[in-house]
From TrEMBL:
It comes from the Bacteria. This is Uncharacterized protein. The chain crosses the membrane at residues 9-27. Keywords: Membrane, Transmembrane, Transmembrane helix.
Length: 121
């Protein structure tokens, strides 16, 4: 009789313990899922914000390039740079570079550009 009583007492103590452990695993899994969903939403939001910032930046840069290429003096100094022989016409090369630096100095200063490059065939 005492052994049956001990088994019942042990079973009565084990049931709440098992229930508590099961609830712990359930709530832990639920919290992990909520954390994953929240992190996913945050990353998606950050991605969309970054995408919009890159699109705005690229539009601004394209506008700057088109405005600069529309300026006759920029085209003139660019042609001088392209035509100048780097070894023979050093002074003409430096003059054209300095004039372009002066023209772009405001954009470099206010748009936080590092400088400019001229790419030609």
């Amino acid at each position: 009789m005492t052994s049956i009583l001990k088994a019942k007492v042990a079973l009565m103590m084990a049931i709440p313990l098992v229930l508590i452990i099961a609830l712990q695993f359930y709530f832990q899994a639920k919290m992990e899922l909520q954390a994953k969903l929240s992190t996913g939403r945050d990353i998606h939001s950050l991605l969309k914000t970054t995408e919009q910032a890159v699109i705005a930046w690229s539009k601004r840069v394209k506008t700057d390039v088109f405005l600069a290429s529309d300026d006759a003096s920029v085209r003139q100094y660019t042609l001088e740079l392209i035509k100048a022989d780097k070894n023979e016409e050093q002074q003409q090369l430096l003059t054209a570079q300095n004039k372009l630096k002066d023209i772009f100095s405001n954009a470099i200063k206010h748009r936080e550009y590092i400088g400019f490059s001229i790419i030609s065939p």
